[in-house]
From TrEMBL, chain A:
UniProt keyword list: Cell membrane, Membrane, Phosphate transport, Transmembrane, Transmembrane helix, Transport
Residue ranges of domain ABC transmembrane type-1 in the record: 95-305
Record function comment: Part of the binding-protein-dependent transport system for phosphate; probably responsible for the translocation of the substrate across the membrane.
InterPro entries linked: MetI-like, MetI-like_sf, Phosphate_PstC, Phosphate_Transport_Permease
Lineage: Bacteria, Bacillati, Bacillota, Bacilli, Bacillales
Protein name (Swiss-Prot/TrEMBL): Phosphate transport system permease protein
A molecular function (GO) term: phosphate transmembrane transporter activity
Pfam families: BPD_transp_1
Subcellular location as annotated: Cell membrane
Keyword Repeat carried by entry: no
GO cellular component, one term: plasma membrane
This protein's encoding gene: pstC
Organism: Brevibacillus antibioticus
Automatic annotation (TrEMBL), chain B:
Keywords, ordered alphabetically: Cell membrane, Membrane, Transmembrane, Transmembrane helix, Transport
Compartments where found: Cell membrane
Family assignment from sequence similarity: Belongs to the binding-protein-dependent transport system permease family. CysTW subfamily.
Primary residence: membrane
One BP term from GO: phosphate ion transmembrane transport
Organism whose genome encodes this protein: Brevibacillus antibioticus
Gene name tied to this protein: pstA
PROSITE patterns assigned: ABC_TM1 (PS50928)
Domain ABC transmembrane type-1 span(s) in chain numbering: 62-280
Membrane topology: Multi-pass membrane protein
Alphabetical list of SUPFAM superfamilies matching this protein: MetI-like
Protein's recorded name: Phosphate transport system permease protein PstA
One Pfam family it belongs to: BPD_transp_1
Transmembrane segments: 12-33, 66-87, 99-123, 129-149, 178-199, 264-283
Length: 315, 296
């Protein structure tokens, strides 16, 4: 009898062992389905980026390959007259406009942004966290058309009265953009400054340096790559911003002559003309080529940011 | 002595900068709200805009913005959370994952007008839909996906490891653990990010010019079939949102009171965005308090 129960027991044991060792089919399929769904979602990101690049490039390159505009003429000529006879497709005024307005915005916003970042991390951290940080986050949330609207109703008339010009100008665009990228620069720079090890500050202060000497020579020095990242990030925002700029910049396709001249940017040119041109015409294709330039610039900005990031890691 | 003077001067300058920034924000908000204050009444918020005469409202635009927000989030949230789960829980440390990360970076730094043009090409022309709400929602999904993925990934990574290990030790499968243990714990973080993303959707215009279009059909708010062209719920109709309307009124408004309409619309938009921002902050604090006091 004992013999028989032993046999049943071993049989049962081996059954349990087998059940525990073989995976549950339902659970296994569930695991695989879940993993696949997550993977597809992530893969979608790659597909979207590749298709954006492909579609914009295929449209943008047809200016050169279908309409026969030379690449050099497109980039370096300053005559933009797509509806004229003969038509001219030089986008240099747009390119320079974009660069000038971005540079002006960065010149204004960089010192202010980094100054604010120092203030909120080094001088009054409590006040910085409680008041300045939320204020800056609110500024990020304000939509770009609202910045454009304020620029149009406040800044443009102000410039018009002060300088006796049209008002729509490089200056107005630069100021509006500066305000828009200020929060980005401040928050990224503040993170970089906060990440500087406390030991460095203590060592400097122990040597008898004042707070400002410590900030200027030690803190800012080691947070430099981070601050540069902040500025480049702000510039890439400014370069691609469309509507706020278009509203205040004047949109004349001439080479910019001075701060108070109305100019055009790549984004404002596309915004204004894309809806009025017919798909497939050389004029329309030229606008897509401008979009391709924007895309290329945003890739260049990413490369610069990656290089800066590597420098920071190396340190 | 000189060093101490410099120190003083620097402190003063930096404080001035901070005051300048806070002053700018207060001035900005004050200006927009005071300009648009007199327009904030029920009639303005609900009536349709008038192209030639004065007295038009922003009713359809307001509705379109809200509807577009709902549509976008319905598409973007599942995708963003799915991709975030992959990045936080599954992604192996290899070249492919690096490429996905690179893609997120590229997407988040693309100018919104480029996303809009992509939408014009694919969702408007290739599909043959024309300007539609749905196309706009897809373009905004592209625009918001990187933010949502990043927020989800961070939120999932911040869930304590012990919770995950406890679940796995009970013999619960990995996917079950993610869905029923980690995701609920990460939900507050994800929701806060989603509210912030909603604020961005609400204020975005450049990507919508070429996808959802710059006009709105005469909406009939008694017709709720999904197919009729005047039905507000039909996702395959053109739709001008509030932000696009502000842009259009400012750059080519023909009505005598265009300026008035712009003032009112900007005030409404700002109030909406402030509400999104404050509610995200409030919600985050509330959850934080609830979770930290609950653990004791």
């Amino acid at each position: 009898m004992g013999h028989r129960t032993e046999g049943v027991n071993t049989e049962r044991q081996s059954m349990i062992a087998q059940k525990m060792l073989t995976t549950n089919k339902r659970q296994k399929t569930e695991n695989i389905t879940g993993r696949t769904i997550a993977m597809i979602c992530a893969g979608l990101l790659v597909i979207v980026v590749l298709s954006i690049t492909y579609f914009i490039a295929s449209k943008g390159l047809s200016t050169f390959f279908v309409d026969g505009v030379s690449f050099k003429e497109f980039l370096t000529h300053d005559k933009w007259d797509p509806e004229g006879e003969p038509s001219a497709y030089g986008v240099l005024p747009f390119i320079l406009g974009s660069f000038f307005v971005t540079a002006l915005a960065a010149l204004i916003a960089a010192p202010l942004g980094i100054g604010a970042a120092i203030f909120m991390t080094e001088i009054f951290p409590g006040f910085g966290k409680k008041v300045l940080k939320p204020v800056i986050e609110l500024l990020v949330g304000i939509p770009s058309v609202v910045y454009g609207y304020v620029g149009l109703t406040l800044l443009v008339p102000f410039i018009r009265e002060q300088f006796d010009v049209l008002g729509f100008s490089l200056l107005a665009g630069g100021l509006v953009l500066a305000l828009m990228i200020l929060p980005t620069i401040t928050s990224v720079a503040a993170d970089a400054i906060e990440a500087v090890p406390q030991d460095l500050r203590n060592a400097s202060l122990a040597l008898g340096a004042t707070r400002w000497q410590t900030i200027w020579n030690v803190v800012l020095h080691s947070a430099l790559p981070g601050c540069l990242t902040a500025i480049v990030l702000g510039m890439s925002r400014a370069f691609g911003e469309a509507l706020a700029v278009q509203m205040v910049i004047g949109n004349t396709t001439k080479l910019p002559g001075g701060l108070l001249d109305p100019i055009s940017t790549l984004t404002s040119g596309i915004t204004l003309n894309m809806g009025n041109t017919i798909q497939g015409t050389p004029y329309n294709n030229a606008l897509w080529s401008m979009a391709l330039l924007l895309l290329a610039m945003s890739f260049i900005f990413i490369v610069i940011l990656r290089l800066l990031g590597r420098k920071r890691l190396a340190k | 002595m000189k060093a101490r003077l410099m120190d003083r001067a620097a402190t003063v300058v930096l404080t001035l900068i901070a005051v300048l920034i806070i002053g700018t924000l207060v001035g900005l908000l004050g200006f927009i709200l005071s300009q648009g204050w007199h327009k904030l009444n029920l009639d303005f918020l609900t009536s349709a805009p008038d192209i030639v005469n004065a007295g038009g409202g922003i009713g359809p635009q307001l509705f379109n913005s809200l509807y577009l927000l709902v549509l976008t989030m319905l598409i973007a949230l599942p995708l963003g959370i799915g991709a975030g789960i992959y990045m936080a829980e599954y992604a192996p440390d290899n070249k492919i994952t690096q490429f996905i990360r690179m893609s997120i970076e590229v997407l988040s730094s693309l100018p919104s007008i480029v996303v809009g043009l992509f939408g014009l090409l694919v969702f408007v022309n290739m599909t043959g839909w024309g300007y539609t709400l749905f196309g706009g929602a897809l373009a905004l999904t592209v625009f918001n996906l990187p933010l949502l993925v990043r927020v989800t990934e961070d939120a999932l990574r911040n869930v304590p490891r012990s919770q995950k290990e406890a679940s796995l030790a009970l013999g619960i499968t990995k996917w079950r653990t993610i869905v029923s243990v980690i995701l609920p714990a990460a939900l507050p973080g994800i929701l806060t990010g989603a509210i912030l993303a909603s604020g961005r959707v609400f204020g975005e215009a450049a990507a919508l010019l070429f996808t959802a279009g710059m006009s709105s059909p005469n909406l009939d708010f008694t017709d709720f079939s999904m197919n009729s062209t005047t039905s507000p719920l039909n996702p395959f109709r053109p739709a001008e949102t509030l932000a696009v309307h502000i842009w259009k009124v400012n750059s080519e408004g023909l009505t005598p009171d265009a300026r008035d309409v712009a003032d009112g619309a900007a005030a409404v938009l700002i109030i909406a965005v402030l509400l999104f921002n404050l509610s995200a902050r409030w919600f985050g604090n509330w959850v934080y308090k609830k979770m930290t006091s609950g653990s004791n």
